[in-house]
Amino acid sequence: MKEVPSPKRPLITYYLIVLAAIIVINMIITPLIARRAITEVHYSKFIEMLDEGDVREVYIDRSENKISFTNKSDKNAVFVTGIVEDTGLVDKLNQAGVDYSSPIVEKASPLVTFITSWVLPLIFFMAIGNLLSRTLMKRMGGGMNAMQLGKSNARIYIQSETGIKFEDVAGQDEAKDALREIVDFLHNTSKYTEIGAQLPKGALLVGPPGTGKTLLARAVAGEADVPFFSISGSEFVEMFVGMGAAKIRDLFKQAYEKAPCIVFIDEIDTIGKKRENTGYGGGNDEREQTLNQLLAEMDGFDSKKGVVLLAATNRPEILDPALTRPGRFDRRIPVELPDLQGRIDILKVHIKKVKTEPNIRLDNVAKAAAGTSGADLANIVNEAALKAVREGRRRVATRDLEESIEVVLAGHEKKNRVLSDKEKLIVAYHEIGHAMVAALQENCAPVHKITIIPRTSGALGFTMQLEENETFLMSEEQLNNKIAVITGGRVAEELVFNSITTGASNDIEQATRIARAMISRLGMSEFGMVAFEQDTAQYLGGEFVSTSSAQTRAKIDQLTVEKVQEQYDRAKEILSNNMPKLHELAKYLFENETITGEEFMKILEKPVQKLVASVDTEAVSDAQSENI
Ligand code: ADP
Ligand code: MG
Ligand code: ZN
């Protein structure tokens, strides 16, 4: 059993101590102090002191049948004595010139006494205790008041009045298409269920911060016109073990009641982090329970009921694999950084909110703001407006926008990967190298899209090829061509810059893997139909065990090197024969950042090959894409 840290105990202890302290002070110490100060004297002694002129003030309390008085020699001392039938007392007091009507001790009403000595201290200490618990919780990542802990606050029911529509999200067309399908499903559930189709249970929006994931989710709510439950992952991180899980349960219960509806969990990485067994302190217990509850809810989740689960994260790589496996968040919607056109569109959306000079040049601004996210661009527009106000102008000028870019990017430079122009140019040549080798060979999958926008995956650029048909059989020629395409990136770098970069590490691995497989397993070498390596963990992504002798292995290595080199040379020949096109295309890509296969083929002056069947994008990115 892990020890469960519960901050509840120290709090209760705290209250008990405070209560005890108040009791001690009121019942024991106060009377003690009070008793010490008051001295009981005989009536005769009082008269004696009065005669000696030592008495200062006298208070006659008929209700308690006592006389309290102070003397002149000791200002702090208070004396009491009983009331004796003494008709001459008043005369004596008058004679001595003692003020006898004024009370010595302010006699408070019992209610006031009770409040000041019991209620006020209690309230005071409770306030301190609350403050204490709140800081404690803030440190633990929660934001709730201690009093609300027992309740689940999944009542984050935001009626679909976010007012945001897809048109407010600029660019991100692919993400929007994927989400539109979900909206459509919610509107026309029967259309899908009649055929027996099942939509994915959950869609996960992944992408760098500020690219509009949260915005897209809110737009879905605005478009779908169904109830929208939105909660941030961090709100599930609770102080007490089990509370987060209870919130999840509650959230889904409410969602079912309101179906059809959308449940959106933002920043899901806070609860969806990989579970690990540190066995230390048990600090993750709460999060693990929350995650387990979420997984359980998703398993019992029936998308026919019309509840669609959306989530967003900047860090898909740290998510627990159980969350992303089929049947859970099985659909990934990439939300990448915008390219040039995307940036222009985003600027257009945000510039509408400010007053501008008529001749504003957004394309120049977008060009200068390479590598920025949508949030950065929104920020740039705002900074520009602030700057215009600061300088006493009424309208934002292009100059303001351009100068704000630096302000916004200055703090970013290190955080985000913003490529320098030189790096960007190298990446452009590299990607065009891949694409041209692909396009200038027979029997090669056509180029679909080329981009030099850094991807979440860590790739700096990306050339996507789509097969005309889904292929199950690949000929030796096709495999060789593929190796040539993969080497094309590095070849272009070498031809143009006469130097090579680290950017091709992924390519090198891929080329080696294909070449090696051809030789050691696929019988496409002088060895003939012999497999030297066996696939032992077929379902776990292939782990090959070599069964060959050391000599054979050396030979395999040598043949692999030769094969890759052969294709490298071929790619080099292809590209060196087409240098003008290489320059032209690289320059075009450098400027536009993303180009389609059609644009590419047009510049290359080759007929566009029509795609017959579209291939599942995920499979494509695995098999056909060449990451730099
Ligand atoms: P994320 O959740 O991906 O970190 P947000 O959705 O919170 O990013 O985006 C932050 C802000 O950036 C949005 O409120 C919006 O003003 C702006 N923004 C981001 N992407 C876009 C976009 N594609 N179109 C318009 N505005 C955008
Ligand atoms: Mg967000
Ligand atoms: Zn590459």
Description:
Helices cover 50% and strands 11% of the residues. The protein is of the alpha/beta class. The chain folds into five domains: 67 residues, no CATH class; 61 residues, Signal recognition particle alu RNA binding heterodimer, srp9/1 (2-Layer Sandwich); 180 residues, 3-Layer(aba) Sandwich (Rossmann fold), CATH 3.40.50.300; 70 residues, Helicase, Ruva Protein, domain 3, CATH 1.10.8; 206 residues, Methane Monooxygenase Hydroxylase, Chain G, domain 1 (Up-down Bundle). Strands 5-7-8-9-6-10 form a six-stranded mixed beta sheet. Helix 12 packs across helix 13. The longest helix is centred in the first third of the chain and has 31 residues. The protein starts with 7 loop residues before the first helix and ends with a strand. The structure holds adenosine-5'-diphosphate, magnesium ion and zinc ion. Adenosine-5'-diphosphate (ADP) binds next to helix 7, helix 12 and helix 14.
